[in-house]
Amino acid sequence: MAGPYTTIIQSCHMSGLSSNTKVFSLYNFADTVCIKLPNDFPRNFELVELYNLESDKVIDFTDYVEQVLYKPWVDIKKTILSTEIGQHTYRMSFYNPHIGPNATCWFSYIIQDGHPDKPYIYMKREDPEDSSDDSSEGNT
Q1: CA atoms of 7 and 81, how far apart (whole Å)
Q2: Residue 48: which residues within 8 A CB-CB, separation 6 or more?
Q3: Rounded CA gap, 139 and 29, in Å?
Q4: Which of 39, 41, 49, 50 is most solvent-facing, going by the fewest CB within 10 Å?
Q5: Strands 6-10 and 32-36: what pairing?
Q6: Distance between CA atoms of 35 and 80, rounded to whole angstroms?
Q7: What is the mean pLDDT of the chain?
């Protein structure tokens, strides 16, 4: 599913969310989102749950996710991810029936619109000699 028009997001343990959250323009958020698994994450686990922290709901990802065991990524179609303006955080739970307990990792991203506010403010330079004090007028 991954191709030249893929958005890549690094997943991590919960403690690393703030440093792994990327900002995307709404118009540059690709149709396929490649979630790269952490380097120390077990590769023989299958994704069993995709949980959206904002809506507090488990997402049905049956037809929207492609995962190949032993590969360090999971491809997700953006149609099941939130593309509203703001920050979005998800938890992925993986399971291996031969090993037992779930393995969990997280990913987060921020969507901004195509026309974000300018990060600077235009300031008008005023000459102190040109300004007049309105309160001093009429007090003579």
Answers
A1: 12
A2: 93, 94, 95, 102
A3: 63
A4: 39
A5: parallel
A6: 14
A7: 84
CA neighbor of 7 nearest in space, from 33, 26, 37, 41: 33
Does this model's pTM top 0.85? My answer is no
- What's the start-to-end Cα distance of the chain, in Å? 81
More confident position, 76 or 26: 76
Beta bridge partners of 6: 32
pLDDT tens digits for range 12-61: 999 999 999 999 988 888 899 999 999 988 888 999 999 999 999 999 99
Nearest-angstrom CA–CA distance, 116 and 94: 36
Question: Cα separation of 59 and 61, whole Å?
Answer: 6
Domains present along the chain, CATH in parentheses = 6-132 (2.60.40.10)
C-alpha closest to that of 78 among 25, 7, 4, 17: 7
Q: How many CA atoms lie within 13 A of 88 on its CB side?
A: 21
- What is the C-alpha to C-alpha distance for residues 34 and 102, in angstroms, rounded to an integer? 21
Dist CA 26 CA 67 (whole Å):
25
Six token digits for residue 76: 């997700």
